[in-house]
Every structure is written in C-alpha cells, then in structure tokens.
Amino acid sequence: MASCSDTKEIEIEVYETSEAGNSLTKITEFSEIENPIIININPEEKFQTITGFGGSFTEASAYLLNKLGKENRKKILDAYFSEEGAKYSLTRTHIASCDFSLSNYTYAKVENDTLMEHFTIEDDKDDLIPMILEAKAISKDGFKIISSPWSCPPWMKDNKNYVGGKLLPEFNDAFALYFSKYLEAYKKEGIDIWGVTVINEPHGNGNNWESTHFSPEEMTLFVQNHLGPKLEKDGWKDVKIFGYDQNRAGLPEWVDAMYKNEETSKYFAGTAIHWYESTYDFFPEQLQYAHKKAPNKYLIETEGCVDSEIPHWQDDAWYWKKEATDWGWDWASAEDKHLHPKYAPVNRYATDIIGCLNNWVDGWIDWNMVLDRQGGPNWFKNWCVAPVIVDQEKDEVYFTPLYYVMAHFSKFMRPGAEKIGCTINNEELMTTAVKNPDGSIAVVVFNPTEKPKSIQLNIGNQIKNTTISAKALQTIVIKM
Glycosyl hydrolase family 30 beta sandwich domain: which residues (predicted)? Predict the structure, then answer.
C-alpha cells in the first residue's frame, strides 16, 4: 500500500452524456458524494487490440444525405468523421442491395454470367460511393470498411430469388469471382475495402428481405475452397474474410466449424457478430468461447440497431426510458421471450459495447448512420432507428443521444489501443478501459441508476476522485 506521500493525483479530462442534458459535455467540477465506487485500472494487464468503432454506409443513409442541403450533409459527415466529431474508424457497407436499399439490385444482372463480363456497380454511383468518398476526404486518420452481401445474385440460388434460398454448388466459383470484381470496381472508384463477410445473416431473416442461407460447414467449405483461394489468386490476400455475421448465441457452433483445423481456419481473419438475440444480454460466455477457440482472430460486432421502432424526433428523453421494443417483443418464441423485454436505447448501446469490450470483442459497428423520421427508407418497410435522424423535406437534422453514446467510444478509443485491466466494486455500474497508442488511457463508465455516484480512480500509486451523474455515460481520459 502506497503511503500518502507517494500518492499522486491523476490528470484527467471527463466527458459526459446524461439524461439531464449533457451531450459529450466536458465536465470540470465534481460534487462531493460519500462512499466512492472504486475503479482500479491496471495497464499491465492486456487483452485484445482495438480495431475500431463506427457505423454503416447504406443506400438509405446516402440517399437521405443527397436530399439535404449541402450545409446539413456536411454537418452530419463532419459529426461522424472529422477530428472535432466522433472520428469513426471502422465502418461497414453492403455489397449490392439490402433491406436499407430503395429496391432490390445485384451487380451481376445477366443470368448465368459466370465470368462476370457484365458486372457493374452503377447502382452505387449516385448515393453510396459519393457518401463514402466524402467521408474519406473528411477523416484525418482514415477508416476501415467491411463489406457484406445480403444475397448472392438471385440466378445463383436454388430459388432464383433475392430473398432466402441457397447458393447452388455450381456457382461457388462465380460467387467468389463476384467478390473479386467488387473489390476491383470499388478500388477504381478510390475506395479500398479492408474486409468482407461471406454473407449477412446466414440463418436468414424469416425470409423477409435479401438473404442467402449457409450452414457453418457450407460457409467454411466455400471460404476454404473458393473465396479464400480466389481472393488470394486475384491479389486480394490482404482483404480480411469474416465468417458467420449473425447473432451471438450461435457463436460456438460456427467457430467450431470455422476453426476446426488449420485448413478450415486458413482464410478466415475473424468472426462477425450481431446483437439481435436480446435487448439486454450480450452473451459473454459465447464471446469468451469464440475468443478461446481462435485467440489470434478478430471478433467484430458488425451490426446492431434499435429495430422494430420508428425514431422519436427531437425527444431525447425517450432514448433514456424503458419504452423501446425489438422484433422479439412480438415475434420471439415462447422460450426466448424473456430475452426481449422493453429497454432504454441508450442503456442497450452502452451496456452492449462495454460488455463486448470486456469479453474480447475488438470492433463495434452500428447499423445505418442516417435515417428519416419513419426509420427508413427501406424497401421492405423494416423500420429502425439511427443515431442521426433527418427530416429531408424540411432539411432538418436531429442528433439523438445514441450519436453521443457511439462517440464516447469511437472518439476516445483509437485503433491500435489495447484493452487493459479495469475492475469496479459495484454491480450497478459498468466500466471498461483501453490504453491508446499515444499513451493516454480512456475509461468509460456507465451509471444507469437514478442517483449520481462518486468514483475513485486508482492506477498504480495514483488516484483521482470524480463524480458521474445519474443516468449518464462518461469517458474519462487519463493523460499518462
């Protein structure tokens, strides 16, 4: 135990988002509250390296940005990608159409064109590509992009449809070539793709919008024998291939197949996951299992959003209240209903991201960056919420509290940071910490309770006393 004379005070900056109205606000004065909660930080205890945080480029978001005036378009992209904004570092986009497209489309429009002689990304050139290029121009450090197809071209499937069905074995090589052509076409537009997932949600989505079904073994064999070798042969061996890309409860079955042995593992860079299985459970046991199965592979959350809801316009309070429902509130099976109670959107984001970081997840990507007041556009009318909502008719923008929650992580936990030891002696609050490449330490604390709390930060022989408001998320940056 260090003596009082050995104890030094830590130099910190504190940023808070709270139900009371703070929005990533810098806090400099802390009230005295008795019985502080102890947070111990141990930089010597190291876990995963952080890949990044961010959101997704979708046709819906890009279309809406085109409908806004230049000033508001720039305001939104600056908020996500500039040094003054959230500094998004890890993003996702869709390969051909998804539910958040205006219509169904594929890049291989000519049936049985197995050599992809008529391959075209024309559908992306009005909306999606300009949005990505403008974000690139704004971002000082740049950002990684993971691209995911929702469906292979329908003519490659047993049902010849965008929705559902399986890839026919005779088109395995054609679908692998489709990926290669996509990477080449986007590179010609000035966009380098960092990684791809094999398919979005291989279990399907209840046959509602674009999907292609794979079993764990089918996807593993496709990557092992077709996609991996093709990308390697065509000069794309540095592009990361991610398997799975669906909800976390299924992780053990998928990683057992993907990482069965050296041959099956070879081309997989990591595993992609979603959060839609529960409004509160982040499935720590399954995340731990996936990490232990392949400790040197990425484990990235590629999609999460408030679904089955229409955004609440300029109503910050709603995002802090337990009023939201998800698809499972209405549709989950009886034995899974308990996983889908009403929830507060802010709590769900904060809890999930902290829970993921504390269980080996190295990247976390939100879904749409921008949606309209209906929660679209979406050709299937599968409405959702985004951190930024716009009224394109009136050229108005609303930054919801979810935008600030994302920024608490993306702005202060930078790519290359290391997750470090961080414990808290209180079960009501959550916390996590990383050490950034510049040597600073970012500690995120979430207080979902109705009362402000006093915190004592301990790091080695250094301490600092602070407070966190009721119903608040804080990022504490420790200057080392």
Answer: 416-476
What is the phi/psi pair of residue 97, to 5°? Answer: -80, 160
In the 8-state DSSP scheme, what is residue 61? H
Task: Report d(CA 28, CA 462) in Å as an integer.
Answer: 19
- CB-CB neighbours of 410 under 10 Å: 25
d(CA 80, CA 76): 6
Sheet holding 396-399, edge to edge: 370-372, 388-391, 396-399
What is the Cα–Cα distance from 38 to 423, expressed in whole angstroms? 8
At 122, which helix (H) or strand (E)? none
CA distances to 203, 247, 314, 372 from 276, rounded to whole Å, are 13, 6, 25, 22
> Which is nearest to 387 in space by CA: 325, 306, 300, 445?
306
* Model pLDDT for residues 396-412, shown as the tens digit of each residue: 999 999 999 999 999 99
CB-based burial label for 375 (10 Å; 0-12, 13-18, 19+): buried
Question: What is the Cα–Cα distance from 62 to 423, expressed in whole angstroms?
Answer: 41
Find out whether 394 and 115 touch, Cβ atoms under 8 Å.
no
pTM of the complete model? 0.97
Nearest CA to 27 out of 42, 43, 14 is that of: 14
